[in-house]
Every structure is written in structure tokens, then in C-alpha cells.
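Re: your question from the hallway

Yes, I did run it. Sequences:
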Amino acid sequence: MTYEPVIGLEVHLHLKTQTKAFCGCSTEFGQEPNSQVCPVCLGFPGSLPVLNKTALDYGLKVALALNCQIQEYTKFDRKNYFYPDLPKNYQISQYDLPLSKNGFLEIALDGGKLKRIGIRRVHLEEDAGKLIHQEDSSLIDFNRAGIPLLEIVSEPGLNSPGEAHEYLTTLKSIIEYLYVSDCDMEKGSLRCDANISLRKTGQQDLGTKAELKNMNSFKAVKEALTFEIERQAELLNQKKTVVQETRSWDVKNLETVSMRTKEEAQDYRYFPEPDLPPFILSPDKITEIKKTIPELPRDKMLRFVKDYGLSDYDAKILVATLKDANFSEECIRLYSKNDKKPIVNWLIGPILYEANSRNCNLSDLGVAVKDLIGLVDFVERQEISYLAAKSVLSEMINIKDSPANIIQKKNLAQISDIKSLELQVGEVLKENPKSIQDYKAGKGNAIMFLVGQIMKKTGGKANPKVVQEILKRRLSNA
Amino acid sequence: MTAHELFDKLNRKEISPRDIITSLQDRIRQIDPKVKAYVRLSDSLHQTPILSGIPISIKDNICTEGYNTECCSKILAGFKPPYDATVITKLKEAGATVLDVKTNMDEFAFGSSTENSCFGPSRNPWNLECVPGGSSGGSAAAVAADEAIWALGSDTGGSIRQPASFCGVVGLKPTYGRVSRYGLIAFASSLDQIGPITKDVRDCAILMNIISGFDAHDSTSVDLKVPDYTKGLVNDIKGIKIGIPKEYFVEGMDAEVKTIVQEAVHKLKDLGADLKEVTLPHTEYAVSVYYIVATAEASSNLSRFDGVQYGFRAKSAKSKNLIDMYESTRGNGFGEEAKRRIILGTFALSHGYYDAYYLRALKVRTLIKEDFDKVFKDFDCIVTPTSPTPAFKIGEKIKDPLKMYLSDIYTISANLAGIPAISIPCGFTKKRLPVGLQILAKAFNEEMLFRAAYTYEQNTPWHLEKPKIE
Amino acid sequence: MAIDKETVKYAAKLARIELKPKELEKLSLQLQDTLDFIDQLKKLDIKEINPTSHILPMNNVFREDKIKDSLPIKKVLDNAPALERNFFVVPKVIE
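Structure:
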């Protein structure tokens, strides 16, 4: 029996505002416990919330970037449940009139085809505090309580763990472009829960779903979904029923474990938050927010392909983060040749490699655009070898000097001077009579060996093309 | 003495702020054992620093930094807020000395008699066997018994006006949004307002000048210029159009109260007001709407009292488990009426009942508001009794919650409609219990209330009468 | 409507309030009385009426995103029934 997985994702994002959603406390991460709290975010008796304007603007920005319909009239509601990390024992959230509804996100499938994933709703709420569990007690730090959270709920339109992973990557990339969240799963500024059910291939009705929690990386989401598909398929194959429940991802044992079944489902008693008057989002306001949305990754990628003749693959790599995209585009634009291939190859090759190995953005390498272009020009003019250029690049990053200075200081300039190369070739031929014989016997490879020997002798500085020409000439005359 | 009389004496340097405090303390020590208007009253009063102005007494649900604010509930025992309510900040800025001892109230303002206080009931200064009304009964009793110059109360369904009426003093519930709620421990957020309880209308206007106005800490406070309310103290109501709602003079009302209020209405006519009968057809539904809306909001507002950050935490062996700790703390920390209202409100919001109760109540609330909108198109104010009865005996209604709820029947509508309403003394029953006259105006027209109330007051002797406390 | 003891128990459970059997008994009767009275609202036709959750015609009340001082830790913890270092403490939360 084959089954089709049906997956919906619920993403929670910390918005990168200076202050919390409803009070003036700082949102800075990693401070002393209970040091960034006030009567409002502690829910002290008598305190009242006042909405942070920037939090709403950021929420709208994300909703618009996800093609959502903005609600003209939106309001906050109280979600009531008792939990020690929730200072008021209700969360200010949005229920029936969220900021926005009915958006979509396009993800690229293998082979480059696009798939449109529906976004059911995007709404604003406040985060809870943090619990630290001990043997027989739990400690509470309320610093996180009240940080603005954006909840992004997808339709159950994802059909594989791979698609779920692609959805998250695409979403994260968009959010980073908007500069409204750090999207750091380790710090909890991006969290993801997944709903998953299976149905027989071709069937319309949805099966019973499980909700998966506690996955702390995109990789974990993929693994948990993969595990869950197998678990549910096995149950179905054995004609057993899947129970509707919440399951937690166990990173150590790589399995999902039951947390609670739906029978204990909460009755949240949502009702309109009386302390916050509603919000009316005018077309002017929406136009104003729209203006702050930059070109998004997919549009940028298409433009790179069109304007700079990049392949889809190369363009996608370069636009993954806005910083990389901007840096790359500057390099490409300022590169004076019409054919942009050399600079692009450097960007997605050695430069990206250096950035990845330092876990930073291209622009954070601290190398000026003009110097990178300068380096590529040296290679293109055959003044230094590709190999030497790579070491120049590392040096540029380490000591922040120009390529010309480094080449000079390290004496890395390529030797193209025929006279001095003739000498080197002569020596190598003398030392390798066997290779000459091989060559004459028709073994074309022998010449490559000889080139290698000369490169070794010159510390990689010899111009391999010139060396090869000299060798060919001398060998045929020999 | 009233605050404005004391201001005059201070200005003429006939008296010092310390003199005022000292004589007030003496009076409290002498009288309060009988009236019990204050709670946690120790042998000596340690009020916050004496400022230049007049001392003021504060209800136990308004936060005063560093001084106990417990809503007269066991669950908030020992709670010292880390901040001042906005009204307290404004009072201090105006020079008022804020008494650290608070006035008694029904627990969390749940009640109409102060009998629901965890400290026991206050007494009505006019008859110590009777309740002072509630929930701001302590504030009203203190003002009536000259144990306070003036006081602040809070009004969610009549909690300022009904005790003012029972104690023969002036009480005003401002327009919703006129006075900041920041620092008022919430009962029902969409209905609560802080307001003055004073000895006469002039003091009421002066106190409103101090506490009114926009507050950036309260999203529901309105950014609208506050007029000088003392300018509204004009002894003239000629030509003012007053509506008398027929639904407010019906069966169930005490006969004496009816006569006294009708006499007051005649007096207004004699003073030149233009009186007509009007209709507020949805009046009969107000109590029902109120008990759904107010308890639903309260059930959520009071969730925070769980023994985690402040107040009482149950210490039974059972409370080793978190849920048991919650249930035992709340089961033992809340009084009977609080539990009743929290459970009613929880029920009204719970799955399957929301539409039938909560949503329906919100819709009827719209009808009640529209009733007032219609009348205020043609009328400047509406005059009604404040309460259907004078002060009742302690213990008389406490066993029958519904009966107690119905004693707010004339005051609740103003909260549901968000409009301002004042209660002023308008006479006494044969047993010398005060009766109150309620005047309502449209939103943000407190000036009209002051004008009508002041004119009536200046032409009648009631506000000059004092109780003899035996 | 008739409110039975189970419904009262359910609401008390949601509200995290422990009720002794006697309290439950009494409360059920009193709530029944109150609800019988409140059921008068069912007489009204409200289909076309908008609900009023905020009485003032206000909207769009905001605060600028500017940092204000938080409370000193002492004031945060001063009222706490139980503390461990600078954390609030509760009996262990069992997931």
C-alpha cells in the first residue's frame, strides 16, 4: 500500500523589535534571569498592554511578502490556559480576525518546478517565559515573556519531508530579506511545529493527524517527519488506527514520542482582549508597508539569471541571503568584462567556500569588492595561477591587504617570461629522460607529468600554458 | 470638612498639612473601630510622605507602590505593588498625601455590600447595623463618617454610586476611558472605571480635574482634552432637558425611595429643567448582560492569581504537584463570591456556551447602548434613582446572590454603555437612611453632570447632614 | 438551561479552582438560579445585531518601539512566595 503524506507547518518567529510586544522592556537575548521584565510583561495586577507599533508593521511586512490578504479590521483575543511560563495565565493572541489570511509561498521542487504552498494565516501574539526543569521543581525566567511572536500557519499542502524542508528554507530566506527576525532556531527565535497525516495515494479525505513538536533544526523537522511517515504507515498497514495526539521529537533516539492525546484537549475560551481596542489597517498603511519590502529571493534570482547570464543553480546560491545577494551583485556589476562567468565562478567557488568555512556572509569576509575583482583580473590576465590566487584570497581575508601587495610580497606573480622558463624546462627534461621516451612512444600524458614537475620547481608560479608550449616545441625537436 | 474648604484654610495658612493629617488620624482611631471603613489598620498610620495638599483615601484595589494592595482578598495577602497606579501618580503630582491604609471593599469588587471582604464588612455610618453598600463601601463609609476628606473608589456596575447613595455622599463613575485604569486591579476591563467619592459636588469636580486624562499606559484611555470641571459648577439648570426613564420606576422598588426620588425630580423641574418621560426599552436585560460580560472578563483577569509570582500560595502536602498547587491556592485563596463569579464567567466562555451566553450578551449590550444614544439625541441628561432600596441590613442579602445582583439594577447600564453617571444625596427615609439620585449624561459630558448635580445640591440641604455615630 | 454538577465541575477544573463537595452542591444550585434569570436574554432576536466588545469607537492605539527601564530585580522578586536564586519556583511541570 502506498500512502501520501499530508503536512502542514506552524512557524513561530520572534520579531526583531527593540522592545516587547506590549511593554517597553528590551528583547535582548541572554540576559540575567528576570532582569528584563516590568509589571506589564509580568502580568502584575493592574498592569495593561499597549501594542508596539513596529511589531505590527513587521507582522504586516511578512504577511505581505507571503502574498496574504491583510484584514482591514483586526483585533487581539485572549487565549486562556494555565501554565507557569504564562504570567497572566492567558496569552494575548489573535483568534477569528488575524492580521492576514490566505497567502502562499512558492517552493522549488527537484527539477526546478515550482509548487505553491498555501498560507492559512499570519498572526501576532506574545511569547511566554522560559521554564528550566529540575528534579522536583521548575524555575521560571520571564525575560522572554512578551516578546512579539509571529505565527505563520501553512495549509496542509506539503507532501514530503523534503518539501517541508524546502518550505522552511524558502520561508527563512524571505524573512531574512525582510530583516524582521533572526530566524535562529538555537536561540528559539524561529520555532516550528508540524501536523502530519497519511492518506492512500489518490484519496481525497485527510487521515488522522499527529502534531509534532520540539524539533530544533530544519534537519530535525525533516527527520521527525520521515520517522512519523514510517510510524503511521506501519500502523495503517497493520490496520491499526492513528491516534490524534501531540508527539515530541526525541533527538537522542531519533523518534517521536507521545505527549498528550486530543482527549485532554484544552478549552482556550478565546474572547476579544478588552484592554486593546481593535486595529483598522487602511489601504494607505498597507501601501506604506509594501514600499518597505525589498526584492525577494525568487525575483532576485530570476533577475540575476536574466541580467547577468547566470545559471538558475548559481543564481539560487547567490541569493540565499540578502547580504550575499547584495555583495555578489555589486561584484558582478563592477566586474568590467561582459562575460560575468569568471567573477561568478569565484563567488560561488573559493569566496563562498571561505565564507562557509568561517560561518559568515560573503560581505563579512572583510574583503573589498574592488579587491576581489582585482584578484579575478590577475587570474584572467594570467598574471597569477588559479592555485596561487586561492592562497592570495585567504591572505586577503586574514591580513586585509590588496591582492597586488600580497602577490608582490609573497612573490606569487606568475612566470610567463620565456627565457627563465626555458631554463627550468631544460633542467626538468634532463632529470626525466624516461618521460621524454614515454612521450615519443606516444604517451601524451607524459607531458602533463612534466608540466607538474615544473610547477613544483617554481612553487606554482610558472604559467602552465607557456610551459606546455615550450615543452611541446622542445620535445618535438628532441 | 470638604477638601475645598481645607484648601481655602491652607491657602490662608490657618492650618498646616500636618494638622489635617493629625486630626484625620485621630478621627480614624476614634471612629474606625465602629465603622471599619479601613483595612489593615494598625495602631499608628504611616502614610506616605505628607505633601502640601489634602490627604486622600484609596480603595484596596488601586496599586500604591510599596504599600499593601490586596483587593481585600486572601489570595493577594501581603502584596505590595512595585508601581503606582496612574491616578496615584497624578494625585502625588497634585500634592495629595495618599494614605497608606486602604479602604475596605468586596473582594475584587465582587459585591454590593462589602460583606465579601476577607476582612469582614464595613458598617454604614448612618446605621451601624446596615451595609455601606459596595463594592467601594469602605471609601463611601469613610467619607460619610469624616474618616476621610475624600476618596477614590472603582465602579464596574455601580460600585461607586450605590455605596455613595447608601452613605449619603457624592460618587461619580466617569466615562469609560476618561480616567486611566493603569494600576486598577482589573475586575471587568471593559466596564471598570476609577472615580471620586466626596462630600459635595465641588470636591468631586476638583478630584476629577486631578485624575482625568489620557495615559499612554492604558490603550483604552482617551486622548481628549479634559475641561476644567469646576467651571461646570453653575447653579442654573434652566432649559436643560432631562429624561426620566419609565423603566426605572417599576415594581420591586422601595416605596419610600420612589417618593423621595420623585420629589427630587419635581425639585429639578422647579429649578427650571425641562422634564419628559423617556424610554430605555432594554433596561430589564442589563443585569443579565452584566453578569455574563463582567464575570467572563473577571474569570480571565483573575487567572493570574495562582501563587506563582505574588500573594498567597497554598502549602498543603498536595501542592507538590503543579495543578494541585494551582487548585488548592485558588480554592482556598478566593472567597465564595469570587469563586462563584469566576466559575460563571468560565462557563460563559467555555466551548459550546460562548455563543449562547457571551456573544449573546455582547449583542444585547449593543441594544442597551443604542437605547441611550437615542435618548441623548434629544436630552442633556437622564435622572433615575441610584438604588431601588436604601441601605439594607448586614446579612440580609448575602445568602441570595441573585437578589444581591439585582440591587445594582439602576447603576449597571451606565457601565455597559460607557457613559458617566453621578449619585448625589436626595433625601432620607423615615429611619434616616440616605437616598441617592443618579444623573447620567452622554459620553465625555461630565460637565453636564456637574452642572445638574451642583444646582440640585445648592438648592437642597441633604449634603449638609451628618451621621451621628454611636 | 439546566446546569448540572458535571458542568460546574468542568468549569472549576478549567479555572483551576478546587471545590469541596459541599461547595459544589451549593454553587450548582446558585448558578442554576442565576442562569435561569439570565436565560431571559433568549427572548430577544439578536441575529442582526453586532456585538459590542469595546464600548468606545477607538482604534489603532500604539506605542513607539523605544526601550524603557525594566524593574529592578529586587522589585520583581519581592512578592514571590518561593524563589531559587533569581528565578520563580513552582512544583515540577510534567509534560
